[in-house]
Design brief:
The structure holds two protein chains of two kinds.
Chain A: H1 17-33, E1 46-47, E2 51-52, E3 58-62, E4 68-70, E5 73-75, H2 77-87, E6 97-102, H3 108-120, E7 124-128, E8 130-131
Parallel strand pairs in A: 1-8, 3-6, 6-7
Antiparallel strand pairs in A: 3-4, 4-5
Helix pairs in contact in A: 2-3
Chain B: H1 18-34, E1 39-43, E2 61-65, E3 71-74, E4 77-80, H2 84-93, E5 102-107, H3 113-125, E6 129-133
Parallel strand pairs in B: 2-5, 5-6
Antiparallel strand pairs in B: 2-3, 3-4
Classes of the chains: A alpha/beta, B alpha/beta.
Chain lengths: 134, 143
Amino acid sequence: MKISRRPLAANVPSMAMGDIAFNLLIFFVILAKATDDSHLQWDPAETTEVTRAGAAKVSIVIDAESKYYLNGQQVGIAQLAPQIEQILLNSTGDDRRVLLKVHRNATANHFEPIIEAVSEAGGTIMHVLEEKRN
Amino acid sequence: MKVRRKCKLLVEPPSSATGDIAFNLIVFFLVCASIQPDSGRPQEIPRSEENQEQTEEVENIEIALTGNLNAISLNGDTVRTSELRSRLTKLLKSKTRPQDKIVIVKSKIDTPYHHWVDVTTEIEQSGGQITIQREEQQTIQVQ
């Protein structure tokens, strides 16, 4: 006696497609948005009026221990100016914006060389600050 | 002829998916909470340029900062930080040329950043253009 085989359909469950797409979307959003300096410890200074900083190619952090970070990587003060110049080489307009995240108690001997370096590289400084709450 | 009603099926969401849904919701709200846009204050500081042909004498306002948060030096006079804006506005009122509106900010090494931000905000709001002057470091060899 001949037994006929039942064809088995191997379909990918379409139910999970939405979940997979959503997870991928979140994954890429995190990759694109999360800057590498989010783990650094620094308290922003306060000011009365603030505007949205927006995105920038260069982000410099002076943390609570007065260490320098360029786009999340620790650097020495001597390497900072040439590296900023290198990054801003073909940038124009708003692309020349440099985010400056300085710990509120950092002293002038630490933050002034940075301001000078950015100014010399032709960058536009954006001090990242917090709005004063009365 | 009697038409039979279709039997109604009880539609329940599959309980096996609730874990996935909860996880996705947690991730979604975590991402929303962690991505906060930065805010701050833009500042333009002119490049230092050595101009050989400069013949005109320009008398700029000088502000010196120290670790003392309550007082600053304005053209050599000690003034309270709270009085800075009114004093600066008065001084800058008489200056018409942009190069005269440049305010030189000198900071001692112990000047904290939050104090520097407060003072430079006052200068900009008074109509001044900030430039920084750093103490020059020199190595002197004593024989």
